[in-house]
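Quick question, first post here. What does this chain look like in 3D?
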Amino acid sequence: MSELQLLHACHAPAVLAFELANRTYFAASIPDRGDDFFDRFTEGYNAALAEQEAGVCAFYVLVAEDGSVHGRFNLYDLEDGTARLGYRVAERVAGRGVATATVRELCRTATVMHGLRTLRAATSHANAASQKVLTKAGFVPVGPADPADLGGKSGTWYQRDLQP
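> Answer (accepted):
Ran it through. Tokens below.
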């Protein structure tokens, strides 16, 4: 059983382990974070916590019973009841409905905890798994995504209007 938790300083070692263990897996479908992300992990992690504290973003981790991270689910640019959603799940739990269930849970959390009314997410045309997750979680395509939003790849924006 896994639990969705708001990102905290204590999660840092497990998040870094998650990112390292899944780097090659993630790079197959989304742009690689690059060596600098890992070389400056602590600095970037602390910056993310500061953004969260400022109310600009809300970062969540899906934590397994053993304390390892199964996924990251992030709400970016919280403004006027809207935010962008980004997520990634570990290869070892991919294809089991974990991403879909957690995105659905985060939609409820986004409404209750952050007062959001709309979530948007972009995915590349090549990322069929992410398209499937978004569709199953109640998102609908709303238009083309700029390649600048997707690491140079073309794609689609999806949107879900949230229920209070």
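The two ends are 27 Å apart (CA to CA).
The first helix runs from residue 12 to 21.
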